[in-house]
Write a structure and sequence with these properties.
It is a single chain. The protein has one domain. Helices cover 76% and strands 0% of the residues. The chain contains six helices and no strands.
């Protein structure tokens, strides 16, 4: 087993835990639908985070071409995946149940967006590292999305406005669709 395969096992376990948590949360929400108030913004964030996770899992294959691994690269990828798992973890309770997901969302939102701010900031480091190792060039559109989103996520830590949170959830959803259809898929094929 090479270094990439060895590291990819841990990354896959972390991402699998994140997806499992989200799926179990959705199933709990469906099972408790008669006594649970669902909040569409929360559901859209669940979908957005599932998309983040699958994009990261798919893009992780670029690291397969890295010839010489270091602990700093390992910790970069590990921390990146750990942040993603923590973000997913904040969308549903680990213990207990929720009767109103709007209330639950606004109890978690500061941590949720602080972690997204950190994660997307670390994404710049990860994308730059891939480029510096010659694994994948930085897509020209990358910074047009990343820099504003970092600022939006930072703003979301401090802004409790439901309109702002709805706008941001829709913006990220739209970007995920755009990125997957127009940018991510063609690059992944090359």
């Amino acid at each position: 087993m090479g270094s990439f395969e060895y590291i990819s096992v841990l990354i896959s376990v972390l991402l699998g835990l994140a997806i499992t948590h989200l799926v179990i949360g959705l199933v709990s929400m469906i099972q408790g639908r008669e006594s649970t108030r669902i909040y569409w913004v929360h559901l859209l964030w669940v979908l957005n985070v599932i998309t983040y996770i699958t994009q990261w899992w798919w893009a992780f294959h670029y690291w397969e071409r890295l010839e010489s691994w270091s602990m700093s690269v390992f910790y970069l990828l590990f921390t990146y995946s750990l942040l993603m798992t923590a973000i997913a973890g904040l969308l549903f309770p680990v213990h207990g149940s929720v009767t109103d997901y709007r209330i639950f969302y606004y109890k978690q939102f500061r941590w949720f967006f602080a972690l997204q701010f950190l994660w997307l900031s670390l994404d710049i480091v990860e994308v730059a590292a891939k480029a510096s190792f010659g694994l994948r060039p930085i897509p020209p559109e990358y910074f047009l999305f990343t820099i504003p989103m970092i600022l939006f996520f930072l703003g979301a830590v401090f802004v409790k406005s439901p309109k702002y949170h709805a706008f941001l959830a829709l913006l990220v959803f739209g970007w995920n669709v755009f990125y997957n259809v127009l940018i991510f898929v063609p690059i992944a094929r090359s």
